[in-house]
Amino acid sequence: MEQGVRTKFFFDIYIGALYLPSKTQSAMKAMSSKGNKRVLMRFLYAEVSKERLIQGWIAGFERMSKDRRVLLQARINQFNRFFQDMKKGDSVIYDFLDNCTTVVTINAKIVGSIEGVDFQQALLAIWLGNNPADSDLKAMMLGGTK
């Protein structure tokens, strides 16, 4: 498990942790490796509204090509409906299963799942892709430093 802190405008928002079957500092290997993967977000900020979370996901998914986004849009909409206001200490777990399902758990309660390896890759790319939401967090989640 490797972890780092997502910072925005000098505020620590959440700890992001990446669990892989075997360690790698290669984002491409982490995203394409076989075996179950997990990303954990543990919130540090007092409160992040559902609307803010969804805005963040929308911005993250907008980093991919429009054609790819169009293919995923119905599942992105479904994914966005899983979220709620998050408070300090709350957690979200994203389990990327070998059967191509992504299971989302909020505060130890499964809130839904999304099918498709294409969705898994798109979601992982928000943290680990070529244009991540936070490049320092990406480096730390892959075992590097800021």
Can you give a write-up of this model?
It is a single chain. This protein has 146 residues and is an alpha+beta fold. It has a domain at 47-141: 3-Layer(bba) Sandwich (Chalcone isomerase). It contains five helices and eight strands. The strands form two sheets. Strands 1-2-3-6-7-8 form a six-stranded antiparallel sheet. A two-stranded antiparallel ribbon has the order 4-5. Strand 7 (101-106) and strand 8 (109-115) form a beta hairpin. It is globular and about 35 Å long. The mean pLDDT is 92.
List keywords for this structure.
146 residues; alpha+beta; Chalcone isomerase; 5 helices
CATH class of the domain at 47-141: Alpha Beta
Number of helices: 5
Q: Give the % helix.
A: 25-40%
Mean pLDDT: 92
End-to-end separation: 17 Å
User: How many E strands?
Assistant: 8
Query: Which term fits the overall shape?
Result: globular
The largest sheet, given as strand count, sense and whether it forms a barrel, is: 6 strands, antiparallel
